[in-house]
DNA sequence: TTGGCTATTTTGTGATCACAAAATTAGTCG
DNA sequence: CGACTAATTTTGTGATCACAAAATAGCCAA
């Protein structure tokens, strides 16, 4: 007997029909994971949007299998909401959720920035400054999706230097939870009236001032969520 | 022929061979999830232990499928470590990880307890007192697994009253991360020299004193992890 | 037109399969 | 006797299938 003992009913062709893409190991799941995370963080998934296995699978050109694993992963981070009947949707915001996310961010992110500060040098400050300039541009253009992407890049450029294994994933989970909602908010009230605490943070990094950096990050969170959040919640 | 039009190659029998268990929807995954979580929290999974799909599946009497989803879930919470080659193991502790978990717990758990305080009444205090008595018993018996289980019950009896949707999952993730390590520590140095801050916390609940509860939880965390952790880490 | 019922479709869940890479074991040669 | 290599086993990954429950569409009657 050869190695195929029983009838082969499925998946005889991992790639196209030529051996062009050898379908590297673990690629499909990573692709789905980054795609969905990116969509959540830039607000392309609206709160309440239904996420279906086969739908996402077809959209990304993979089988439902890697999608299932990614959905479980994101559900564990509370970035997706699995309803009791198994249906999955992007979580909707509620006042209590919003307040708690704000509280959690204020507890964790300033601390994380302080942890990162010793590893941040002037080159990093320059990169942050460039990102911040692009942010200003996005604001003046009213490009909410670009703003969300760059704001995320700014914060995590800082946090990444912390080499944190614990706080960092917690903060990433928080961002996945509030980002979709912020997109709808910015889409409604615009991004114009945002006070720019980023420049303050950059100055604190250049001065190697932990207290100032902590305060700048906290103020940025408070302004970014506080000012916009209140009048835009489903109900007060 | 039966109603299956095409060849039926798999899963012809969802339950045993009599219709005893109709295999309720979503039971298998929940069963695996609670089993693995419980094993992690009570230290039955030692850090470094390899977790295999087929192994766990056979051990729990289910197909590898629900195990895959649970592993992805727990990996997303950093309760399991997926190595670059796909192998999964219970994460090992490192000094930096330990310090960061301690820091994160001190940031989140006292706050969570304070949030819970308004919802805690004297009946809850009584339940907590009973749990604490059992904890004392476990300590005197040197039963580390029972101690871990009851200590978890004590803390989360408090936290559950917070009705938290955000902080609570973060704290659960933290517990899953340090519990397996604590089991090995308690197994080595014993549970005898634990200062009991639980009674202080119960008193604070009875007095409706947020500051005292905050302080008691913080002290409990510091003592539980600080005293034991240092001399037991792999390397300093 | 509308309310309720039925039929169809959609969707998540559990299971098995084929395959490749990795780990383990066996075997052999120096 | 030890180290290197080849064969075997283990293990994760992606895919398809059958099934049940839920959601939707369709339909008929009041």
How would you sum up this structure, described in words?
Chain A is mainly α. Chain A folds into 2 domains: 27-89, Arc Repressor Mutant, subunit A (Orthogonal Bundle), CATH 1.10.10.10; 95-232, Up-down Bundle (Four Helix Bundle (Hemerythrin (Met), subunit A)), CATH 1.20.120.530. Helix content of chain A is 62%, strand content 3%. Chain A is built from 9 helices and 3 strands. Chain A has helices spanning 27-41, 53-60, 64-76, 95-116, 122-141, 144-160, 167-189, 198-206, 210-229, and strands at 50-51, 81-82, 88-89. A 3-stranded antiparallel β-sheet of chain A has the order 1-3-2. In chain A, strand 2 (81-82) and strand 3 form a beta hairpin. The longest helix of chain A has 23 residues, at 167-189. Chain A is globular and about 50 Å long. Mean pLDDT of chain A is 86; it is low at 1-22. Chain A binds a DNA duplex (30 and 30 nucleotides) through residues 3-4, 6-12, 14, 23, 25-26, 28-29, 52-55, 62-66, 68-69, 85-88.
Q: Looking at the chains present, what oligomeric state does this protein adopt?
A: homodimer
Shape of chain A: globular
Which sheet architecture does the biggest sheet of chain A show?
A: 3 strands, antiparallel
Encode the helix/strand succession of chain A as letters. HEHHEEHHHHHH
Helical content of chain A stands at 55-70%
The CATH topology assignment of the largest domain in chain A is: Four Helix Bundle (Hemerythrin (Met), subunit A)
Low-confidence stretches of chain A: 1-22
* Structural class by SSE content of chain A: mainly alpha
CATH hierarchy, class of the largest domain in chain A: Mainly Alpha
Q: What is the total number of structural domains of chain A?
A: 2
Give me the side-by-side strand order of the main sheet of chain A.
1-3-2
Summed over residues and divided by their number, the pLDDT of chain A gives a mean of 86
**CATH second-level architecture of the largest domain in chain A:** Up-down Bundle
């Amino acid at each position: 007997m050869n190695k195929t003992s029983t009838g082969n009913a499925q998946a005889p062709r991992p790639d196209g029909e030529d051996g062009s893409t050898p379908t590297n190991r673990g690629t499909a799941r990573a692709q789905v994971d980054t795609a969905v995370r990116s969509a959540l963080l830039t607000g392309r998934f609206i709160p309440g949007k239904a996420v279906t296995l086969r739908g996402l699978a077809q959209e990304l050109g993979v089988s439902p299998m890697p999608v299932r694993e990614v959905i479980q992963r994101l559900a564990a981070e509370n970035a997706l909401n699995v309803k009791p009947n198994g249906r999955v949707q992007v979580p909707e915001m509620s006042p209590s959720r919003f307040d708690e996310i704000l509280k959690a961010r204020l507890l964790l992110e300033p601390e994380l920035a302080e942890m990162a500060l010793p590893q941040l040098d002037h080159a990093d400050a320059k990169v942050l400054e460039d990102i911040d300039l692009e942010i200003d541009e996005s604001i003046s253009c009213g490009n909410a999706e670009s703003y969300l992407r760059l704001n995320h890049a700014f914060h995590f450029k800082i946090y990444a230097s912390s080499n944190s294994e614990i706080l960092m994933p917690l903060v990433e989970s928080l961002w996945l939870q509030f980002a979709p909602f912020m997109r709808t908010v910015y889409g409604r009230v615009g991004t114009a009236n945002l006070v720019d605490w980023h420049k303050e943070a950059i100055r604190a990094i250049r001065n190697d001032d932990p207290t100032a950096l902590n305060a700048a990050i906290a103020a940025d969170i408070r302004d970014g969520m506080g000012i916009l959040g209140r009048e835009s919640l489903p109900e007060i």
